[in-house]
Write a structure and sequence with these properties.
single chain; five-stranded mixed β-sheet
Length: 352
């Protein structure tokens, strides 16, 4: 492999990239806006506890909770509605009292109270809610009563902490920075095809492998530098920095492979825009859903960006290690190789 030829191609591609005012400006402005967006978001959490209640035949329960400072309670008509609200993360916790609570207490039996927690509910909340249930029982019966409490976590249990919204934004903003490079690389390749630059280059001693290697280095380099800069500024390297850098590198390889794939599908800039928008929007879906654990449907886990989003989220917000996200890294690498091989193979057939 001729390193001098590859460096010449990279310099040429960088010049073309900076001359494309749309992608060049949107890249710079986008990076600045994402960093500003992070710092504009509040770094503290609202301490008001939102609590769902299912208490058939006991309207006084909600009134007693509303009077407590720091608690925002809502009564639901059915347990199904209560569970759905917790699953959608509208309420971090909910209490379901049995319909025969009073009759069991009157006969000296121990009723079962079910407590539902969302996947993002912190551990300390669970003890507080159990104490609150005992208080509710006292308010209803006006005496200390024995209760059996059963808890259930709805959604993926991340052993979560209450994370400020701006920290929840880190994975999504990182994915958006990477996602923009899909169309940048694809448009760069498409422009050279439309202008017959590729055919002119192949008349020289350059080979297709030199061309593809230069494009891959450029795509990976631009993506990695931008997303790494963002992560450094927002403090995302404070935990497992080498692992985070490995994840970002694999993410850069992933979007570069997608760029090759989009370029192989599109025959002109209009095609790049159409296919690129579809790929980019699909790429963003897990990132947007990942802001609130538990709201993503099962099909979203098929998308390669889901594993990238989850890996960044676990590292930056949940104190994960490389062992915890090892499967994600392998899946991201596999998708990256698949996209690159398919895209490069299709482009090679077009050029030869």
């Amino acid at each position: 492999m001729n390193a001098r030829l590859i460096m010449t191609l990279i310099k040429k591609d960088l010049t073309l990239f900076t001359r494309n005012q749309f992608y060049f400006i949107i890249t710079i402005v986008g990076l600045v806006m994402y960093i500003l967006m992070y710092f504009v978001m509040p770094k503290t959490m609202d301490e008001t506890l939102k609590l769902g209640i299912y208490a058939p035949g006991m309207p006084a329960v909600e009134n007693s909770l509303v009077s407590d400072h720091g608690i925002e309670a809502k009564t639901f008509g059915t347990i199904e509605e209560l569970r759905e609200a917790v699953m959608r993360n509208e309420y971090p916790a909910a209490i379901a009292l049995p319909e025969d609570l009073l009759s069991k207490l009157a006969t000296g039996q121990k009723p079962v109270v079910t407590i539902y927690f969302s996947s993002s509910a912190p551990e300390e909340m669970k003890g507080a809610i159990k104490a609150l249930v005992n208080q509710l029982a006292y308010l209803v019966t006006e005496q200390q009563t024995p209760l059996e409490m059963r808890s259930e976590v709805l959604g993926p249990d991340l052993l979560g902490m209450q994370i400020p919204w701006r920290d929840r934004l880190i994975p999504m903003l990182a994915i958006m920075i990477l996602g923009l490079e899909i169309m940048s690389l694809a448009s760069l390749i498409s422009t050279e095809v439309e202008q017959n630059t590729v055919k002119a280059l192949l008349v020289t001693p350059l080979k297709l492998r030199h061309l593809f290697t230069a494009k891959a280095i450029l795509g990976i380099g631009l993506s990695f530098i931008q997303v790494l800069l963002f992560i450094i500024v927002v403090g995302g390297l404070s935990h497992e920095p080498l692992t985070m850098m490995l994840v970002l590198l694999l993410g850069s390889i992933l979007v570069t492979g997608l760029g090759f794939l989009i370029a192989s599908l599109a025959h002109d800039m209009m095609g790049v825009t159409s296919w690129g928008m579809i790929a980019t929007i699909t790429f963003f879906i897990p990132a947007i859903g990942g802001m609130i654990p538990g709201i993503l449907s099962g099909w979203a886990k098929v998308l390669p960006s889901y594993h990238l989003t989850d890996a960044i989220s676990r590292l930056s917000n949940y104190g994960a290690t490389i062992n915890d996200i090892g499967s994600h890294l392998l899946i991201i690498l596999g998708w990256s190789i698949a996209f690159a091989v398919i895209g490069i193979t299709a482009l090679r057939r077009r050029y030869t």
